[in-house]
Amino acid sequence: MGSLVSPSRLAAEIYMAPRTPFFAALFIVVAASVSRAADPKPSVGAAPIKKGDFALTRSKEVKPKRLVVYKTIDDRKLELHVFEPAGHKPSDRRPCFLAIHGGGWVAGTPTIMYCVCEDLARRGWVCASMRYRLHKPTEGTTAWESVKDARSAMRYLRTHAAELGIDPNRIVAGGRSAGGHLAAMTALGAGLDEATDDLKVSCVPDALVLFSPVIDTSAEGYGHELLASRWKELSPRHLVKPGLPPTIVLHGMRDTTTPFAGAKAFDEAMHAAGNQAQLIAHQRGSHSYAMRTQELFDEAMGQALAFLKSAGIESPNK
Length: 318
Description:
The protein has 11 helices and 8 strands.
């Protein structure tokens, strides 16, 4: 006889499944039968995952194949740290992942996303971890410049796809924390473009992978004070519209930096707008939980790659 699954666990698993029309209908039926247990909740007494930073450790152990300048502005060169699979050739048409580091828009470096890049390169991807301008008002840069840089990097990858050996129609953007926010804004930040960008080239990725993203910049989310009265311009939760790329969000339910409620509201808005989306809710996950240990990282990458496969973007190497 099969194992017994509690109604609350069953509802949570359905909640985290891709919301195809079939699953949406099934969710409604099951939710009604299990009352209010449908929304996943942190396990009582389960301590949140806080210790460890696998991403930081891995950043010291691997190196990119090369650095490529994607934009020069005010005499400052902004680079992509490029990882390539073994035997990669410019004539290849590999899927590509633009990886964006976190740090609340005020700190961080491309190295923190090396773990993602190295993992994907082994699977046959080209992966580029980007440097972007940080929020430094004294130097004339804010989070809006960070968004512009992410959109410029996406356009660079598409424009130079032939020489980079990537498929311009299989470019995924993703990131951790504020990096997840910038990835989302490549699709949602219409009009927030560098004056030198070629706007004929789309900066919208073919899919999004967001790890504990800053997804709600209202007073209930993250970054509200830093963004001040213009916060809504950079709040993905409030910018959702139809026609967005397939998106997976991996978020800890114990996240006190970028609250889980924002990720849940974003997911609901995505489905209401008819977009393909999935929310992976980790019951013990604190902020950036997916990069705390190798075990958590491997699990999260497996979930992300399964979602990308469902969206038509499959890894060349099994």
